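fold description:
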Amino acid sequence: MRKINISNDLKRDAEVAFGTTFHRPTPIYKTAEGKRGMSQRSVRSTLATADAALTAKYGDNLPEALIQSDPEVDMELFGRIVEGVKKVYLTSGGKVAYGVSLNEHVFLPDGTEKEVRPDSTTEANIALEGSPVRWTGKLIPRDKAMRMFVFKRSYQVRHVNGLTYDFLFGMAKKLSDANAMMLLGGGPKGVAPLVMGNGGTPYRAFLEGRVEGDRYALILRLTNLELKPING
């Protein structure tokens, strides 16, 4: 289980565990003969057999060329097993690009591009010493939050010993009694979005609590998409 440093409404913090309790079963694939299957990467096409290259080469005669000579298949390379693949960026001319700079495109709810800004490298901020993930004091009713945001990920926050059980149980009970979710903040000031891992996406985080007897569930829900009505 991964670790997260989290504080409660009294600004007392503890390092606890978080993770998902859902485990997707791994299917076993077999051939018609009963042999166990395995996944492999293979070459399907090359730059020379890509749609754009074929269209540029044959133009309006492409349908006839496909029927007569199968130019979309490179008989020497098609089906070849590929190992040790690395990702590279290409120019519009199909050449390897060097010194690539990535940009982030921000869109308005109606699909209009609002801003283009350089893509920045993010650092994880959920387990910083001296800067725990904090309650912001902003409570949102649970049913309202479910209608306002698209939650992309959910993690269960779990205790690691008896002391952290009491710590997390108290948090869960307060949220359960309020039937609300608490907005969390990270970083030194406790107001930044949460970044779960280096290079990860910044998320707005909400904490949801459920209690049943002496059992509790404290759920960390992450979102980077807010639902807004489209004017007009």
